[in-house]
């Protein structure tokens, strides 16, 4: 079975390969589907796993989550983004049934979480914020305990616990007390606890907080692998993480959904006008006259002056013509030397900031 | 539910609490045994249960057993693991109750050594012994269930412990000031058992109070889901 290789840092390459290998082993066992099979099932089913309808959560007079509605399909990886206190964790806690919404309904795999909590909760694996664990237990004891409270069949329990410990790379530390583990391992133990019982949906609340870069890459590749077999909801305030892992992003601010879209679309929707950054050497100081002569240019602005007497300008145009060609030709005629010319990078960061500051006027739902 | 009982039971012995609990009890029982049995030369086994050292041990050590149960889970956030699992809150609460009760049972079993020593010198009254032991379990059930309830209302273990100790002392001392409040005195009810009599009314009181506390805890936990 072919697995798509991920961009991984060199330092964690061997670890990542270990994960991939583990998955290959499990795929052979038939427990976890390979990518091609998964895609097939995704297309065939494409059904809604989580449905959130007009959910509101109030704490006294304070509204933490304000009338949100969205749907998540089978097999999707969804990123829940928002600044601190935006209502991400509250939303996740409501989906897992830990707290009840003041209004509205949450349906998980066809079961209403407040009416049929047992069945709905069985389909959810939750990794809470701050990775709470029973630190007096060993890793194996903890995963076994989670299997027990998730009602994994007694005969299969041992094998499944073993499998998950292997899958999350905890084999080496399975007999250690959790309190003696490093943060990265604790995170994995928490992940193992969420994975046990083969839930359809994995809910990960800030899974990479407090990890070092190496551990972050490891956890991310683990999440990506898990995404092939699970529906994942992941909250984060690290935007690059979300754009790397998630297929769709839900941006929440002040308890309201600001946007639901793919990371690419969000970037496109908020990208600036036709804009170019040029660094030039302009000895005769002719830039403004030249710019005025080019009718496509609507705005020109000095960004910075460099020490080597070059200047960087931002040039904007309302028309969708390629400014670079015109600038190149016209500037050359006037003896202005171009050192550098680039388009500004619009990232999810920009999208995020813009959406949070500007409300949701120009970005609609997908 | 079995998973919860097992986990709680293990955690009592993974931390010193289980050992301290049994140790303190056995010291108290030994002191009582010395003064009421050995030095006075009688063969009444029930005496070791109903003297001051044992009652004092109960007042301060039962809260030790119960104060962690929900307070700590809430503080460390592990509560989320339990409440988002398919287990119902009822099972979680009852599981914790049974685990704490099992520690009491172990302590009781340990007291058989005093029974054996007494048997060496003369025959204690079997009926009274059985009544005392049963009474002791019922009596402890009341304070365990209250202790768990106290633990569920706060995330601070110390506060939970102080509430439990306070409750014990109030129910112990108050009837001495006002005889009208005798119905509140669980200790006086327990003394009845150590006389070798099982009073149905007292038994019902013990069980009802225990069930009330457990139901209160469950209701409180469920209620918190919507206000939390």
- Through-space gap between termini of chain B: 24 Å
Number of domains of chain B: 1
How many structural domains are formed by the residues of chain A? 2
Alpha-beta content class of chain B: mainly alpha
Q: Which CATH architecture of the largest domain in chain A is right?
A: 3-Layer(aba) Sandwich
Question: What is the assigned CATH homologous superfamily of the largest domain in chain A?
Answer: P-loop containing nucleotide triphosphate hydrolases
Give the rounded overall mean pLDDT of chain A. Answer: 79
Largest sheet of chain A: 6 strands, mixed
Low-confidence stretches of chain B: none
Number of strands of chain B: 0
Helix content of chain B: over 70%
**Element-level helix/strand string of chain B:** HHHHHHHHHHH
Mean pLDDT of chain B: 88
Q: In percent, how much strand structure appears in the residues of chain B?
A: under 5%
Structural summary, described in words:
The complex is a heterodimer of chains A (366) and B (228). With 366 residues, chain A is α/β, with parallel strands linked by helices. Helix content of chain A is 38%, strand content 26%. Chain A contains 13 helices and 14 strands. In chain A, the strands form 3 sheets. A 6-stranded mixed β-sheet of chain A has the order 6-7-8-3-9-10, with helices on both faces. In chain A, a hairpin with a 5-residue loop joins strand 12 and strand 13 (311-317). In chain A, helix 5 (139-149) packs across helix 6 (154-167), helix 5 runs parallel beside helix 7 and helix 10 packs across helix 13 (348-358). The radius of gyration of chain A is 25 Å and the shape is elongated. Mean pLDDT of chain A is 79; it is low at 1-44 and 360-366. Chain B contains 11 helices and no strands. Chain B has helices spanning 2-14, 17-38, 52-66, 71-76, 79-83, 89-110, 112-121, 126-152, 157-177, 186-194, 200-227. The longest helix of chain B is centred in the last third of the chain and has 28 residues, at 200-227. The mean pLDDT of chain B is 88. The chains are: A alpha/beta (366), B mainly alpha (228). Chains A and B meet through helix 4 and helix 5 of A and helix 1, helix 5 and helix 11 of B.
């Amino acid at each position: 079975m072919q697995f798509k290789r991920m961009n991984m840092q060199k330092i964690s390459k061997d670890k990542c390969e270990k994960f991939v290998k583990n998955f290959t082993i499990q795929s052979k066992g038939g427990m976890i589907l390979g990518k091609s099979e998964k895609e097939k099932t995704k297309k065939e089913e494409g059904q809604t796993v989580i449905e959130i309808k007009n959910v509101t959560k109030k704490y006294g007079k304070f509204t933490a989550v304000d009338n949100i509605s969205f749907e998540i399909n089978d097999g999707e990886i969804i990123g829940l983004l928002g600044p601190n206190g935006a209502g991400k964790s509250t939303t996740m806690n409501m989906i897992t049934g830990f707290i009840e919404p003041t209004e509205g309904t949450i349906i998980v795999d066809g079961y209403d979480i407040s009416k049929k909590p047992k069945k709905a909760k069985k389909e959810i694996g939750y990794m809470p914020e701050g990775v709470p664990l029973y630190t007096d237990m060993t890793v194996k004891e903890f995963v076994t305990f989670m299997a027990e409270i998730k009602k994994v069949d007694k005969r299969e329990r041992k094998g499944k616990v073993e499998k998950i410990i292997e899958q999350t790379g905890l084999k080496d530390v399975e007999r250690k007390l959790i309190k003696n583990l490093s943060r990265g391992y604790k995170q994995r133990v928490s992940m193992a606890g969420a994975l046990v019982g083969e839930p359809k949906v994995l809910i990960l609340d800030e899974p990479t907080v407090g990890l070092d870069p190496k551990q972050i890459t490891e956890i991310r590749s683990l999440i990506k692998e898990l995404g092939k077999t699970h529906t994942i909801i992941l909250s984060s305030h690290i935007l690059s993480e979300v754009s790397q892992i998630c297929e769709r992003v839900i941006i929440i601010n002040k308890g309201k959904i600001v946007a639901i879209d793919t990371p690419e679309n969000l970037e496109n929707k908020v990208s600036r006008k036709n804009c170019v950054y040029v660094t030039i050497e302009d000895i005769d100081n002719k830039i403004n006259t030249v710019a005025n002569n080019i009718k496509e240019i609507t705005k020109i602005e000095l960004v910075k002056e460099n020490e080597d007497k070059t200047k960087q300008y931002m040039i904007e145009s309302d028309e969708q013509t390629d400014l670079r060609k015109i600038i190149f030709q016209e500037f050359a005629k006037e003896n202005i030397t171009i050192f550098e010319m680039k388009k500004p990078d619009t990232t999810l960061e920009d999208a995020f900031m813009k959406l949070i500051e500007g409300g949701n006027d120009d970005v609609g739902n997908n | 539910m079995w998973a919860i009982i097992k986990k709680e039971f293990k955690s009592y012995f993974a931390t010193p609490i289980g050992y301290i609990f049994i140790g303190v009890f056995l010291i108290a029982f030994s002191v009582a045994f010395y003064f009421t049995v050995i030095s006075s030369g009688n063969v009444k086994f029930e005496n070791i249960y109903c003297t001051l050292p044992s009652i004092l041990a109960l007042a301060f050590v039962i809260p030790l057993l119960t104060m962690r149960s929900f307070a700590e889970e809430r503080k460390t956030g592990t509560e989320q693991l339990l409440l988002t699992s398919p287990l119902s809150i009822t099972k979680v609460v009852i599981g914790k109750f049974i685990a704490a009760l099992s520690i009491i049972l172990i302590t009781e079993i340990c007291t058989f050594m005093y029974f054996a020593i007494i048997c060496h010198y003369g025959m204690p009254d079997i009926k009274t012994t059985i009544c005392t032991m049963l009474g002791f379990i019922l009596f402890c059930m009341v304070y365990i269930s209250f202790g768990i309830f106290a633990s569920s209302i706060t995330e601070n273990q110390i506060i939970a412990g102080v509430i439990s100790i306070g409750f014990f002392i109030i129910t112990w001392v108050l009837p001495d000031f006002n005889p009208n409040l005798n119905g509140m005195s669980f200790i006086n009810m327990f003394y009845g058992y150590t006389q070798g009599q099982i009073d149905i009314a007292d038994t019902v009181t013990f069980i009802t109070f225990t069930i009330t506390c457990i139901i209160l805890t469950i209701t409180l936990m469920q209620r918190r889901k919507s206000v939390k």
